UniProtKB/TrEMBL annotation:
Pfam families reported in the protein's UniProt record: Asp_Glu_race
Family stated for the protein in its record: Belongs to the HyuE racemase family.
Organism in which the protein naturally occurs: Scandinavium lactucae
Keyword list, A-Z: Isomerase
One GO MF term attached to the UniProt entry: allantoin racemase activity
Source superkingdom: Bacteria
Gene: hpxA
InterPro entries noted in UniProt: Asp/Glu/hydantoin_racemase (IPR015942), Hydantoin_racemase-like (IPR052186), Iso_Racemase_Enz_sf (IPR053714)
UniProt name for this protein: Allantoin racemase
EC assignment: 5.1.99.3
């Protein structure tokens, strides 16, 4: 059955949206169309709680537009999973964040995993998500390449080299059976690193796409009973009118 899956890059980087979209299409089932989108306003990279708060509004706007275009499910392609629960309130189909998806997948193929992310501050945010999702005891260690998100798109290859180095370090030192890549901009690195390291290296974009495909195929959307019911109807003013 044909599916239309929306993959939302919550930052405004068109280059990163392209990277994420290509990764999503590389694993999409025959008949699945990937709609890769990003907000036109917001932050060009998401590297902290402040950035996530701004990006969450763009995520909601994109989900609303995706629904209008017929999207049956949505992926939030930032490792902080910004706006995830709010997005589920707004959506009827499944909404999956890439951190959540990657952590789930890692526990299916290994008893322990490590995370490799961008900046040291995002290590702290990833640790919060581990606690929130119940995976804290499955994660052996978190590593940062200590470069900003947009370094993954600057064409120098430095960020990619550092991701590889941290993945090798994680395998050598952590005793982990799998590695989770902690940024949507790393989406195109997982397959090559899996082959080189000989252990599963999991990208959340591709993991989330397969999860959403499965949920849609099973006829499972976001529950509208309880706290994920549609938002209470009320007037929105100013720039928020676009969400009405």
């Amino acid at each position: 059955m044909p599916q239309l899956i929306q993959v939302i890059n919550p930052n405004t980087s068109l280059a990163m949206t392209h990277t994420i979209g290509e990764a999503a299409r590389s694993v999409a089932a025959p008949g699945t169309t990937i709609l890769a989108t990003c907000p036109t306003q917001g932050v060009e990279s998401i590297e902290g709680h402040y950035d996530e708060a701004i990006a969450a509004i763009g995520v909601l706007e994109q989900i609303k537009r995706g629904k209008e275009q017929g999207a049956q499910g949505h992926v939030i392609a930032c490792f902080g999973d910004p706006g995830l629960l709010a997005g589920r309130e707004l959506a009827s189909g499944p909404v999956v964040g890439i951190a959540e998806a990657a952590m789930h997948m890692a526990t299916l193929v290994a008893t322990r995993f490590s995370i490799v992310t961008t900046l040291p501050r995002t290590v702290i945010i990833a640790r919060h998500l581990l606690q929130q999702y119940g995976f804290e005891h499955h994660c052996a260690a978190l590593h940062a390449i200590d470069l900003p998100v947009l370094a993954l798109e600057d064409g120098t290859g430095l960020a990619q080299m550092k991701v590889r180095e941290r993945c090798l370090q994680a395998k050598r030192e952590d005793g982990s059976g799998a590695i989770v890549l902690g940024c949507g901009g790393m989406a195109n690195l997982a397959r090559e690193l899996t082959q080189e390291l000989g252990i599963p290296v999991i990208d959340g974009v591709t993991a989330a796409v397969k999860m959403v495909e499965s949920l849609v195929a099973l006829g499972l959307g976001t529950s509208k009973h309880g706290d994920l019911a549609y938002p209470n109807k009320k007037p929105l003013s100013g720039g928020f009118e676009m969400l009405s």
